[in-house]
Amino acid sequence: MIKFCVLQLHLFNSLEDFQQILLDNQRISQPLRSVPDENLNHEVQTIEGFSLRHPNVLRFNEREIRYIRFNGYIETEKRVEPYNEAGILKDREERITPFSSEILVFQEGNNLYASTLCGVTNGKKLMKLLFPQEQYGIIEAVNHELTEDILYWLFKHYIDTPDNVLSENYQLYVTALKSYMGKTRDNINAVRGEGNRISTILGTLAFLFNSEQLKALRPQIQYETESMLLEITLTGTFKLWNNSYRGRAFRTLEGKEKENALIIYAFLVILPLIVECYKESSAANEWSPQLKLDFVKRLGSEIRQRVETELQRIEQESREEDIEEEELVEDDLESEDDLEIDDEE
Question: Is the whole model's pTM more than 0.90, yes or no?
Fold first, then answer.
């Protein structure tokens, strides 16, 4: 599984400009607040098979995407007293928290993006410390325009018309739903369901009605000949599964090269297409707040019917078990009578 987020480096129009500054600033040191004689170290580390000087090239759909991949290492100061009761400086590992994540930097047109292979919270912290604004300019998480409404729209489309394209203009399909995550409105409790029958799991009263918000959905997405399992969240953190990929464009790639290709393809192709199809569906009145409400009500009715059917089944099984127990008791009594007769003989 690959977890990732994507940020944009607004200062740069080309990968070469970024590389120039990167190569001159691979290691940054900052003095500790609590112990000025010591430094926090932030470092760009090379990865085997990838060069900081010579970008790799990914080709698909007549596109050519140039990228570099490296490891980002940072250190942060723990909120602890640096000295023990005897006034002796504690060991460094007791005072410093290290963190590292690999980073994929790629260019699309005149835009430069960085995908950290971690969640968006850690990704922002990593990029902020590794690439100071004074040298690298503003770096912000990309606004994917994803909303809870889009996730509900994907869910409804799969439930009602699983064999249909999401838009007549694009060969984009949802071929399966594997997982969801919801949170209560107060953001205190979370609910997650997984499995091949996730469409049934999703249809639970506690989840679908206003007590909870849909935060993440994991559909199997197919666009033309390419298919991948992509977890879509509203936070900016996404997940991909290498072994779920089926397609032609990246079939010869392996390992990190395949990861790079799937991340770039999901970001540049799949996510924008989902948003575009949603907008088209809304503009054509194929999706609206009223349709969402009707959909949830219909599911609620179906849930009630399923619950009633299940209760009837349980009651029926319970009655049958009671009858079987009564028959067993009668059989035991008859056996005891037979034994008493045998004793008399």
Answer: no
